[in-house]
């Protein structure tokens, strides 16, 4: 006999909701199968507010995101930025994008305590963080043969973020594991829109710097930080002694941005795009469209 779990119409205490329980919201029953997990930096963390579930009526697998309050601060060029979760914002974005390619899809419903519950479709593929590891070739071969195709698809993904900005929304947590790469030539898919931030003159600055991180990661075929550079002279040779503070990221101060110093075959035009995100930059991107136009110009120059 199958274990008869509890039925939850109030999802406030999401830690108590486990496998075999049912979340009843919006007139539909979702059988909980477990929690999603986040894999970063070799660590696996359960996300107890994000449930794997099955719609009992349709049999479809879903992801159920419950309301979880979280606030933290980050630093952007000496400016303290408050970041926080806003599940209602995510629900509104889901409604805005509808079935538009390039975004995860789903909808929001309220439970009996008015908690916002997001019911999401499964996005199949690998995240961009892991996708880069599939290019098992020397960097120079990757740079000339694979990167142009990666950049074309990244431009499509950046256009999706531009769509959010045009409609007054921020993604809020642009990073390489929040972009899913489907099989084939389908557009990259953005997931997880529930973070937001405040405290910057340009309301989209943190998103823009997140896109910069994606570019740095793609062009470098991974990140290269000062610890790696200074401790692995077999790979990086004398690079550590040739670097200045201006060569590193404004957002992540130990992350190398001036990749031309590591890979001198990177064209100045592309490296200049990256340097907009460095500590030595005098001019920064004000919009996603500016990045898109510069990337398109670089690809046209090849």
From TrEMBL:
Annotated keywords: Kinase, Transferase
Gene Ontology molecular function, alphabetical: kinase activity
InterPro entries: Kinase-like_dom_sf
Record-given protein name: Protein kinase
UniProt source species: Desulfatitalea alkaliphila
